[in-house]
Amino acid sequence: MAFEYFNSEQRRNYFIKKGFSDNVFYFASFFNLVIIILAILIFIKQDLTNIGYGEILLAIALSLQSYLLAKKYTIYHLDKSNPVNRFDLALIDYFEILINEARKENIQQIEPEYVFQKASLCDEGKMMMMRLGVSYETKSKNSPQNFKPAFSPQLINLISLIKSEVIVFEDLMLQIVESSEPVKEFLKDITVSEKEIKPLLDWLRKMHEKPKRSWEDDTLVAGVGEDWSFGYSPVLSRYSYDLSKHFPDPHLHLAVFGHSDIISEMETVLSKPGKNNVLLVGEPGVGKKTIVNALALKMAQGKSVSALHYKRIKQLDVGSLLAGAAQGELEARINGALSDAVNAGNLILYIDNFQSLVGGYEHRREEVGGIDASQFILPYLQSSGLQVIASITPDEYFDRVKSNSSVAESFEKIDVEPANAEDTFAIMLQGLNLLEYKYKTIFTAQVLKEIIKLSDRYMHEVPFPEKALRLMQEAAVTFASTNFVILQTKQIDELISKKAHVPVGDVKEEEKDKLLNLESFLHQRVIGQEDAITAVADALRRARSGLTSGKRPVGVFLFMGPTGVGKTETAKALAESYFGSEKQMIRLDMSEYQDANSLDRLIGTVNNPNGILNVAIEESPFSLILLDELEKADKNILNLFLSVFEDGRMTDPRGKVLDFTNSIIIATSNAGSELIREKVAANQADGLKELLIEDLQQKGVFTPEFINRFDGVIVFKPLTEDQTAQVAQLMINQLNIQLKDKNITVEVAEDALAKLSQIGYDPQFGARPMRRVIQERVENLLAKKMLSGEIGEHQTVQIGLEEIK
Amino acid sequence: MITYFSWWYYDEPLYLWRSIKIITKKFLSSFSIAVLLRTLFDPWKKDVVYLENASLDARFKAMVDNLFSRCIGFVVRIFTILIGLALTTIVFVLLTIGFIVWLLMPAIILVLIISGMRTIQNGV
C-alpha cells in the first residue's frame, strides 16, 4: 500500500484517541468496577445466582471493561506498508494543523518546504525553530476552505525513505533537511549545517521522549541483599563517596558523546583477570570524570557487563585522606582505606588526580605538599583484590607514572582525547535547558557554534568540551536577564574580546577607521620604511577581515636591514596596534641559541617541559613573537620554526602541541646589511629584496624553504638625514608626553634638531645612539633646569643650538 | 473486530508477558537473589579473624568465630532468599493468572452469558 494519508488507519486511530480522553476512561472504569463487585456479590448469593442475573451482570461488566481497554489501548493492526500508519500520533496532530493551514491559505499541494516552514505551528517545531534562531510562523486568520490538499510526490517520496518503525516529527524534519535543496539553502542562509541539525533533532527527540512506566523499564536498582553479601568499609567510607549513589535519579541518561568506546574499553579491562586497573590520561576538561560517572551509572542500572554486576565505584577523596595526616598516619590511612576496599569485595576505587598520591621525578617530590604514596599503593595495585580507576593529566603521567615503571605497569592506560566540534555541540545541547531556565537566556544553534568556534580559537589552554561549556556558562551568567532573551553571536564576540584582549567579530566603526589608517598609526612610531609598514598593515587587515585560515599565525615576517632603522620599533608598534599593548610581545634574542643544546632551553625536555618559548606562548597566546637576530640561531632551531611558520603549531618533547595561530611572528636579521647599505648608497635599491634573498641563500644563512615560509621578507633601508631628524623629533615628542604630568613643554629649535640628528646617527648603528644623545643633550639639561627652579609648571622650554653643544 | 482480536490476542499478550518478565526480574533483583546465592556461605559482612603465629587456643577461637560469622551470613541470606523467592513466586503466579484470565476473557464472558441465560431459562 502506498502513501495514503486521509484514509489511513492511524489517522482514524488519532481521532478515536482524541475523542476518548483519560478522564472518560478512568471514570467509566471506576463505574464498571462497582458493577463487577456488585455482580460478584450477587454471584456469591446462591439463591440469586440460581436465576442467572449475577452471571449476566458480570459478563456485561467484563465486556464493558474489555471495550474500554480496547478503546484506550488498541493499536490497530496497522498496515505498515502505508508510511502514515507508522506516524506517531503527535505527527498526525501536526499534519492535521498543516492541512488546516493549507486550506486557509489555499495551498493545493503540500511540499516538503511547506512542512518545514510551518513547523513552528506545533510544540516540537517551536523548539526547533527557537534553536535555529528563526521566528515563529503564526496561524492564518482566514477561514479554511473545503478541499483536501494533496501531498507532493517529493514529500511522499522522502517520507517513504524514512526507515524508523515509528515515524516522529524529528525523523520527518531530518529527512526534509537531507532531501530538500530549498531547505538546505535556507539553513545555509542562517549558518546552520546538516551536521548540526542531527544533534539538534536528537536533543529535541529526547525532550519529547515519554518516560517509561516502571513495568516497561528494565532498569534495575541495587537490592536489599547486596549489603549483606559484601564487607564493611569503615575507614574507606570516611575518605570516599559512592558514585553509584551519587545520582539523584537512577534512570538518568548520562550521555558521553564520543567517549562510549572508552566506557566499553574500561568494562573490558575491569572484567578481565590480572592487570585490571585503568588509568585515564587526558587534559583537564576532556571529560574523564564524566566517563567514570557514566560507567558508575551503567553499573548501578545493571546495564554493564555481567562481571561488573554488584560492583560499585567509590571515589577516593584524596583531599580529606591527606588533610592533617602526620608522617606515619598517612600510611595507616591509605592502608586502612585500601584494605577496606579489598575486604568489601565489590568495590572499584576511583582516584581522581592520581598525581597527588604518586611521586615521580626527584624534583617533583620536593615540591611543597608533594607526597609519594606509591610504595603503599603499589602492593594493592599489583594484587587482584583491588581494582582501581585513576585519572591523570598527560604531563603528570610523564612526570609521575611513566618514570615509575612498577606503577605504570599496574595500569592499562587509556587516552581520553578531547571531543570534536560536533560532539561538543551535542554535549552543549544536553545541559542547555537547565542553564537557559536558570539565567533566562536562550542559546540558538548559531550562538552555540560561535561559542565553539571562538573557544577553539581563543581558549587553547582548555580542551573541548570544557572550554565551550565554560564559555557557554559564562555567557549565560553575563547576559542573564529577568525575562527570556535570545543571545546574539555578537554578544559572544564581545565576551571573548574582553577575555582574550583581542578584537573579535565584526569590525566596528572606530576599529574600521584604525585599520584603514593603520599605516599612519604605525608611522607615529616608525619613520620611513614604507614597504614594511604597508606589508604588516595589509596582513593585519586581512586577519581582521577574516580572510586568514586561522590555521597559520596571523602574520610571519622577516625584517632585514641594518641596526637602528626601526625593525624592533615596527614590531612594538604592531603589538600595540593589534594586541592593545607593546607588552604583548615575546622577545627572544636568537643569538643566545647558537648551539644545538640550547634547544632544550627554548622548548624544554621530557623531564623539564618548561622551555622559554613553551611557557611564554602558553601564558600569552595572543602575542607578537619577536625573534631577534634569527640568522645567529642554530640550524636545528631554524628547522623547528618551519612548522610554526607553516602550520602555526609546534610539538614539544612531550608531544604537547603549542599553538601559534593567534600570534604575529616577526624575525629580524642584520645579515646582508652591508649589501643593503652599498646598494642604497649607489642608488640601486630596485630589486634589492630579491638580490638580498639570493645572497643570503648563496651564503647558506637561510635555506630557500625557510625563506618561503614567510608571508613577507621586508628590507629596511638605512635612514636618510631627513628621516633621522624625524626620529629625533619623534623622541622629543615622546619626552613631551612624559612631561605632560608636570605641565612642561620642550621645544627644540630646527638647527638644534638637525644637530641632534647628526650626532644621534651612526652609519654602523643607525638611529640607535639617538636615545642616548637625547638623554645626554636634552634630558640632562632639563633635569638641571627643573632642580634649580629655572623652569616650573606650565612653562615651555626652548632649546637652541647653543644649549646642546 | 479483526483489529480488536489481533490486539487482544497478539499485541497485548506480548506487552503483558514482557511486563511480567520485567516485574519478576525486578523482584528477584530487589532481593539480590543471585548474589546472595553466590555468597551464601561467605562470612557475614566478610567479617573474619586472621591470626598468624598465634597459639592453638587462639586459632581455635578464631576458627569458631569465623564459623559463627559464616553461620550468621548463611542464615540471614537463606532467609532473605526464601522470602524473596516466595514473594517473587506469588507475584509471578498472580500475574500469570491475570495473563491467563486476559487470554480467556472473551471465553469467560461467553460462558457467563450462556450459563446465566440457561439459569434464567431453567428458573423461569
UniProtKB/TrEMBL annotation, chain A:
Domain AAA+ ATPase residues, every copy: 274-435, 553-691
Domain annotation Clp ATPase C-terminal: ranges: 719-804
Record key words, sorted: ATP-binding, Chaperone, Membrane, Nucleotide-binding, Repeat, Transmembrane, Transmembrane helix
GO MF annotations, alphabetized: ATP binding; ATP hydrolysis activity
A Gene Ontology BP annotation from the UniProt entry: cellular response to heat
Residue ranges that the Swiss-Prot or TrEMBL entry lists as coiled coil: none
UniProt KW Repeat keyword: yes
Source organism, top-level taxon: Bacteria
Pfam family for this entry, one: AAA
GO cellular component: cytoplasm
Protein name, as recorded: Uncharacterized protein
Automatic annotation (TrEMBL), chain B:
Keyword annotations of the record: Membrane, Transmembrane, Transmembrane helix
Organism domain of life: Bacteria
Entry annotated with the keyword Transmembrane: yes
Transmembrane segments: 67-87, 93-114
Name of the protein in its database record: Uncharacterized protein
